[in-house]
Amino acid sequence: MQTENVEIVTTKEKFFQEYLILKKPVIDALLSSLHKKKSTLNDIPLRVLAQLLYYNDQYQEYPDMEKWDMVFSKKTKDQICENLGMKEHHLNIYLSQLRALRILEKKSIRKAFIIYANESRSLNFIFKINGHS
């Protein structure tokens, strides 16, 4: 098997967006399977999700109820709006879209979509041409 490694130097905040972009075809396939129709995570909701994942990572030491209250707090939403250069009502639209895609569940991220940033994180793809390795 031929292997190609690509090292990505990033920051913790940028990691989540870069990871989601690389994994987007897999996420779209998961969403399509979940909804029984073609479903896609578009660019701006992906960026919003990346921000939510970043804050989830920042507050991971807190108990779940307290952590989710912090992730979805007004302060955090204001920071996300500032980071992404959008108004709060636009953010609320994108949060609704993430709920409609079933990535968010009320005021939390579904476990299947949660990732954490750590130094040893890697994402590997194995291509099986015509189903063969």
Describe this structure in words.
The chain is an all-alpha fold and 133 residues long. The chain has one domain. The protein has helices at residues 12-35, 43-58, 64-71, 74-84, 88-100. The model has no long low-confidence stretch (mean pLDDT 92).
Please tell me what the overall shape is: globular
What structural category arises from helix and sheet content?
A: mainly alpha
User: Mean of residue pLDDT?
Assistant: 92
State the total count of DSSP E strands. Answer: 0
The structural domain count equals: 1
Terminal CA distance? 8 Å
The fraction of residues in strands falls at under 5%
Please outline the major beta sheet.
none
Radius of gyration: 16 Å
Fraction of helical residues:
40-55%
Write the H/E string, N to C.
HHHHH
Task: Please tag this protein with its features.
single chain, 133 residues, mainly alpha
How would you briefly describe this protein structure?
This protein has 133 residues and is mainly α. It has helices at 12-35, 43-58, 64-71, 74-84, 88-100.
Topology:
Blueprint: H1 12-35, H2 43-58, H3 64-71, H4 74-84, H5 88-100
Helix pairs in contact: 1-2, 2-5
